[in-house]
Amino acid sequence: MGKLIATTQATLDGVVDPVGEWVQPDGDHGDHSFERQARSSGLVLGRKTFEGLSGYWPSETGRWADMVNSLPKYVGSTTLSGDLPWNGTLLDGRLEESIPRLKQEVDGDLFMHGSGEFAYALAEKGLIDEFEVYLNPLVWGKGNVHVLGDRGTVRMQLGDVKRFDSGVVLLTYLPATS
User: Fold this and answer.
1) Centroid of chain to Cα 175
2) Which end of the chain is less crowded, N or C, counting CB atoms within 10 A of the terminal residue's CB?
3) Could you tell me the sign of the dihedral formed by the alpha carbons of 50, 73, 134, 137, in that order?
4) 4-175 — its CATH code?
């Protein structure tokens, strides 16, 4: 049985989007992230993130592209139908049923990227097992610091802190028990 791990990058001033301009994928934190995701059973994505990533990664090369392109992608959407490109499979049925079923079927962990409506829906329903924030040692000064909008509070508790030589700190949170 796998866990669903929501992972994101953030700056000290809280910027989470767009990551492409400031994220530093190299270094010991990048190696850590790469190794874990390369061993995973796939990615869980919302429609918008799936469409955005599938428009970028298939034309890229290198170790990250090779890994991301080969992983299965499980997509939550109420608007997509039929066969999906880029190793994509639509999640079948309600999230409360399809996510636990998927976690039972896979051998490794599943990683979710993106921080929009889909991520909030999963968090609100208690379907995410861990939340990872790679806190980068920089102030970006522009970008979106809160992409979810005013949707409500989902409480978490600190599970672990890992410090990397690169200066990045990985904060791992678990759903709050009370």
Assistant:
1) 16
2) C
3) negative
4) 3.40.430.10
